[in-house]
Amino acid sequence: MIEQFASDFLARISNALAEVQLADINDIVQTIIRAFRDGNAVYIMGNGGSSATASHLACDLCYAECRTNSFSVACLSDNVPLLTALGNDLGYYDVFSGQLDRLLGAGDVVIVLSVSGDSENILRAATTARKHGAASIGFLGSNGGRARALLDHSIVLTSADFPVVESVHCVLMQMVANVFRRCIVDRPDYFPGGDLDAQN
Prior knowledge:
Layout: H1 2-17, H2 22-38, E1 42-46, H3 49-64, E2 73-75, H4 80-89, H5 97-103, E3 109-114, H6 120-131, E4 135-140, E5 153-156, H7 162-186
Parallel strand pairs: 1-2, 1-3, 3-4, 4-5
């Protein structure tokens, strides 16, 4: 029984991973590289398990370039005192947008992770990104929910199964961080500007 449950879980993850398009990974990594190249910041956020995954991506993006240039990357749920202060004073729906309103500049990047794509604080974060002229990226389940239409780039899974979507998101975070690191370490010629693919 246990082996059958485990096999079924792996099959569901495999099916979800098969939906990922490498062209979408390309767009997302290029957006992050441009922020790195131009001295802009990246802000990452999610709720629950997605918050932990967001924190992991922030760590990996920072570590990827720690021997080269300064790159400002932050997970907006890592500062628990600030998160709870905003939640107490503004309400939980604004715990991310309340931070972004104070931090965002044009050219920055906002990355959201959401299984449902319908969490109100994620929707408000995406709207705030657009208001400030920041690029926005989403890793979404449940066919994207309402967040899908608010984002510049996204990877959307059809599944609404939380363990499956969150597991795939963990894989995608590792992929994005690894590809980003390889680009900035192995291909520093990317940074003068222009279309990154044209420099392949």
